[in-house]
Write a structure and sequence with these properties.
Blueprint lengths: L5 E6 L3 E6 L5 E12 L4 E7 H9 L7 E14 L6 E14 L1
Length: about 100
């Protein structure tokens, strides 16, 4: 596995929304978007819940180099009317460590 230095370009604001889980309980979901650059490509990734709240309280400075552990989920959806297939990748931050 290749390791690369990833730079934090910018960070969004913490957002929280309420939803009801499968057990019928009200839960607050926290989310924070970050933009990264590896020197070639830029990409957005999302921190959720405890990590999002931690990054909101203790933000990593823009321009700082970090190590990331990410989860990538590729998704696609077919429009039933047009037959057009849309694809996208959700990138979730599992761990972030400033270098």
């Amino acid at each position: 596995m290749e390791k690369k230095a990833i730079k934090v370009v910018s960070q969004g604001v913490l957002t929280e929304k309420e939803w009801t889980n499968a057990q019928g309980e009200k839960v607050m979901l926290a989310s924070k978007q970050l933009l990264f650059n590896d020197g070639i490509d830029s990409f957005f990734a999302e921190a959720t819940d405890d990590l999002a709240r931690k990054l909101d309280k203790e933000p990593i400075a823009d321009g700082r180099v970090v190590n990331l552990q990410l989860s990538l989920i590729a998704r696609s959806k077919t429009d039933t009317k047009t037959g057009e297939v849309k694809t996208w990748t959700n990138i979730r931050i599992l761990k972030i460590v400033a270098l």
